[in-house]
Design brief:
- Two copies of one chain form a homodimer.
- The first copy, chain A, contains 16 helices and 29 strands.
- By secondary structure, the first copy, chain A, is of the alpha/beta class.
- In chain A, a hairpin with a 2-residue loop joins strand 10 and strand 11.
- In chain A, helix 7 crosses helix 8.
- The relative contact order of chain A is 0.10.
Chain lengths: 645, 645
């Protein structure tokens, strides 16, 4: 016994390859904990409970002790693969993090309109904003004081600023007023003044030598439950210079934010939750800044969009009422704060803005989505659906907006799917089942297939259906295709075959059930909103599908599986990450923040859980494409054509 | 030598009576420094240079070493009186601070209208403001959220606040938003909300249990160059509960603020200057709070008025350009800041407001004076003169305001006058020279005479003049009165006589010269402003005289000596400390701050030093009452009457 205690106290070094990050931990520490400690973020969806099987590591050297699991294949066990959450460190270790677990930054979705603002001039059409960033640097030249004109420096500066911008209410931090006179004298009343728009007022954030007027950067951030994405923007030219993404390291504490709120409540871990998400954001900022060779000090602005819980975690607002009836957020509209107050490492006087949220389950990412698709400006009615860890839906036009959130689950983000993964190198992003029953696929970066990302999963679901390998209830049909086999978890379809020299990647019956639940949740939400507003399918002018599916998505397939309403294909638009696109819009045009607030204010939220029609619609939508085939006239022909081949 | 060094290193304890405060200092320390160290504030006008002779102490026990001085009488030397700035500590000491050197707080001028606001109801006349403090506590009761009404807590609170007050732009500190949900839940959505008006916006400063709604106090402060005065106000009832004053402890560094700016520049002592004035204010706050048994935490507001330099010292703004052409302040309008940012010890989220200043030499005390005398609302033209360390003058009506500052010198505050003192117990406040040539006088608190305060000095000047003891040039006339004698410093008039059992109190020729310079400065400033605006004496509807003269002032005498224009006596009003009265007006009525800003903005400043007429007017005003007797028709009869008696 004594020896065992001794061993437990022993310090062990765990080196994680390929990053080389090394954790020093007491013997007996769980490997997932060791990884967390040094910032090696493993996909862990169940929060370390050992049932998601995502946190796989390869033990290269050293001794470990693992609990038995059914989530590893005999082959994996032979190759020393372990689940990090089920394995204890017994000695110094060298472990390898499989590549599919690290996010390939080069593949992160860039918004397609990064130059949207830089080319603007003159009158802007509805919903397009004048380039006028939230935080600007102004070149301010004042006439120095004389005996006849001895207005105090502070008021002289205000007068000069108001010659350039409209700023009826101005504020200046105490520390800036304190150094004001010295700087104005030193630079002969010609300076660069950083001004930020701050909820109806304009703040003088900093005063520097005039030469620094073009050194002004901002970061737009999408705070996803699974992934955090950041774009670096030059505020002088409006050009997006770079982007970067990382896993949300809160993922260790649970797959969805409800689980994380519960964890934080039970473990008094709100500070920990904040420091994780803030740490992720700071890592992104440092990476972007060092790659672009700019000083973090020169980033004056950060604008965040994300679901309501994530915004609460970021600011350490109390999120506990979000999960309890009547589901109330601490704040939907969060006023801009000094970024440093939240621990964000940009200019120490730089500002942190959060886009406004609508409700506990309709976050600012959805407001950003409306803003960037301009739903709120259109005559015709549009649908906006954002498929992430949840599936949020907005319906409306320039006169009204309604919204709802379905707990779709993160299947299309690759979670709860055996070989699901985020859109990174090696992810299967396109799938086609050929007439001979064989499978054609394409991976991101054309590398060896490592898993399946969202667009690939949608393709598979549609292809299995139209090729009659799966029936309308989502059951795989035995013997319908040579690739159907019986796996450890029941019936499965093999996308890749070891005999072709690939790692075997399959889609299981359980995966299909998860994907169908997701698509059914989204469609049911759309139906409830359409019925509540008496909107008919023919009334829809546009359908926008947003989310981290990958770079390209076959919108036809989204209709085929019954996720989106059956409208003319040209009306359906895959719009990618609209959360970050909306954040960037606000960043570059402060008037867009007011618009975002009007959008958030005017959206009517439908609580689906308490809605009498939702469960019925959900059950009907769990068929492919739907129980009511008259809702999907185009699907019949697709399927018939497939049969003919 | 070694022994001497040893002795110097020895620690000595210096106890100051009657306070009992004890300083521990190395042997060799100057007594003034020891006093400063423990917060014993001695009148020291020359800043320790040994020429003002004000910092007298009595050595009761122990050994000291003093430099020779001509400023002590042989009798004082016999009684162990020393000048603290010229005396070194050689051993443990017990010293007594003479009573005239400590401010008697009971005698501090209370403004006459402390209940001005509590009785207000309905429509307010021009220049009188609705009771609506800068910082209020609102009783806010919200309907708790339901599934149908699940507006976030932050927005719910804003809606509820806006039902009570007009607040188009609201802000809330990050720390308050963080605790918002918890507090609202804990108190079932019924709370006391502290809201502050902050430069066009309304800030939610704090949220507490509803029962604390009536616990809300404020402090109004007059930041004088010589004295700092504070009033404690109950913001629920608008009642002034108490007042307190202290010497400005910067006085060690110089009599006027120009000397102090020079000292701070030469010794890099800006932080020291700030910590002194802030320390004085904090001492006043603690004294008031403990005497009234309230928690410092419950003081949510502090409003300061004072000259521009003092406001800069308080906030540690750069004051160095104030003394250099073209005489520019860092800030005239200082935005409200968190009091804690300046080191002021009230509620840690409480706000510090400074009234706006006009120019480097027309501070917010003068704006406060205009605000409280309501010059800016009147049809007729008024003069406002504030006699302190400087003499500031305002002329104007509801349509225009002009102002100027004369470097009058602090003679009427008792500085530069041999037996001058602040208006405290024992100060001679009224003087009458009787027909038989003897002197009748009255002291504050009817105690034994210790010195002469402002109103007494004005009386003496007038009485000497009308009784022909002094000629029109201000020369004492030998043998004109038995009390004329030759003192150490030349001719003097003895107010009190040792043979009557009093300490001898005299007014010297040098004192008279100083007083005449002060009055001449003020009158010359009034004349320049009148001439510049083509205002004739008969156009004047009112003359307001403000300053720390004492409780009562014979306004007739101010005309007799030629300080104020010769208008009908009922038009002259002694208004006391209008700096604190104005600060209190703003405290109790936030709209008054906007008015103060309009006043400051609209005042035209005349720089007397560069004005071609000023020196000429000053020389003419150095006569009693003036070279041009036609300007003072009433004085002739006064003097004639006196002669007749």
């Amino acid at each position: 016994m004594l020896l065992m205690e001794e061993a437990k106290k022993k310090k062990c070094f765990v080196r994680f390859e390929p990053s080389g990050l090394t954790a020093e931990v007491p013997a007996g520490t769980v490997l997932l904990e060791a990884a967390r400690k040094v910032g090696v973020y493993l996909t862990s969806i169940c929060g370390g409970d050992g049932y998601c099987g995502k946190c796989k590591l390869i033990i290269d050297e050293g001794q470990t002790q693992s609990r038995p699991t059914t989530l590893l294949t005999p082959e994996e066990i032979r190759e020393n693969v372990v689940l990090a959450c089920q394995t204890k460190v017994l000695s110094d270790l060298v472990v390898t993090v499989p590549k599919s677990h690290t996010l390939e930054t080069s593949q992160i979705l860039m918004d397609s309109d990064m130059r949207r603002f830089s080319e603007l001039a003159g009158e802007a059409p509805e919903g397009v904003f004048e380039f006028d960033p939230l935080v600007r640097k102004l070149h301010v030249k004042m006439s120095p004081p004389t005996v006849r004109d001895n207005t105090a420096d502070h008021e002289r500066l205000y007068l000069a600023i108001r010659e350039q911008i409209e700023a009826p209410i101005m504020q200046t931090g105490f520390r800036i007023i304190q150094k004001l006179s010295r700087i104005l004298h030193e630079h002969k009343y010609e300076v660069a003044v950083t001004v930020g728009r701050r909820g109806g007022t304009t703040e003088v954030i900093d005063i520097e030598q005039a030469g620094r007027v073009r050194t002004n950067y901002a970061v737009a951030v999408d705070l996803g439950t699974t992934t955090v994405v950041a774009h670096l923007v030059d505020l002088t030219t409006a050009v997006t210079k770079d982007s970067e993404a990382t896993y949300n390291s809160q993922i260790h504490f649970g797959e969805d934010y409800i689980r994380r709120i519960i964890y934080a409540e039970q473990n008094d871990a709100f500070d920990e939750m904040q420091s994780r998400i803030v740490g992720d954001v700071n890592n992104l900022i440092v990476t972007l800044a060092s790659r672009q060779r700019i000083e973090v000090q020169d980033i004056t602005t950060i604008v965040c969009a994300g679901n309501t819980a994530m915004a609460h975690f970021l600011l350490n607002l109390d999120p506990t009422q979000i999960r309890r009836e009547p589901y109330v957020a601490s704040a939907g509209f969060v006023p801009p704060i000094r970024a440093a107050e939240a621990g964000i490492q940009i200019n120490k006087r730089g500002l942190l803005y959060c886009l406004p949220a609508v409700a506990a389950y309709i976050g600012s990412d959805i407001v950003a989505g409306v803003l960037s698709t301009r739903l709120h400006t259109k005559e015709g009615i549009s649908v906006f659906a954002d498929i992430g860890t949840n599936g949020e839906v907005v319906l409306g036009n320039k006169d009204w907006l309604v919204c709802a959130s379905s707990s779709a689950g993160p299947a299309f983000e690759g979670s709860g799917v055996k070989h699901g993964m985020r859109a990174g190198a090696g992810a299967i992003e396109k799938v086609k089942i050929l007439a001979d029953g064989s499978v054609d696929f394409r991976t991101i970066a054309d590398t060896r297939p490592a898993g399946i990302c969202g667009s690939g999963l949608l393709d598979i679901l549609a292809e299995l259906f139209v090729n009659n390998i799966m029936d309308r209830t989502g059951r795989l049909i035995a013997d319908s295709n040579p690739r159907i086999s019986e796996g450890e978890e029941g019936m499965q379809f093999r996308l890749t075959l070891p005999e072709d020299g690939y790692k075997e990647i399959v889609i299981t019956q359980a995966d299909i059930d998860n994907l169908i639940r997701s698509k059914a949740g989204v469609f049911a939400a759309i139906r409830v909103l359409m019925e509540a507003t008496q909107t008919k399918p023919e009334d829809l002018d546009a359908v926008y599908l947003a989310g981290g599916f990958g770079n390209f998505l076959n919108t036809r397939q989204a209709v085929t599986v019954g996720m989106l309403p059956d409208v003319a294909l040209e009306k359906i638009h895959f719009v990618g990450n609209t959360s970050i696109a909306g954040a960037k819009t606000v960043l570059l045009a402060h008037k867009a923040m007011e618009t975002a607030e009007r959008i958030a204010d005017s959206m009517t939220y439908f609580d689906l859980m308490s809605h009498p029609r939702y469960m019925d619609e959900f059950i009907r939508a769990k068929f492919l494409p739907h129980t009511d085939l008259s809702l999907f006239p185009s699907v019949r022909s697709v399927r018939t054509n497939a049969k003919r081949l």
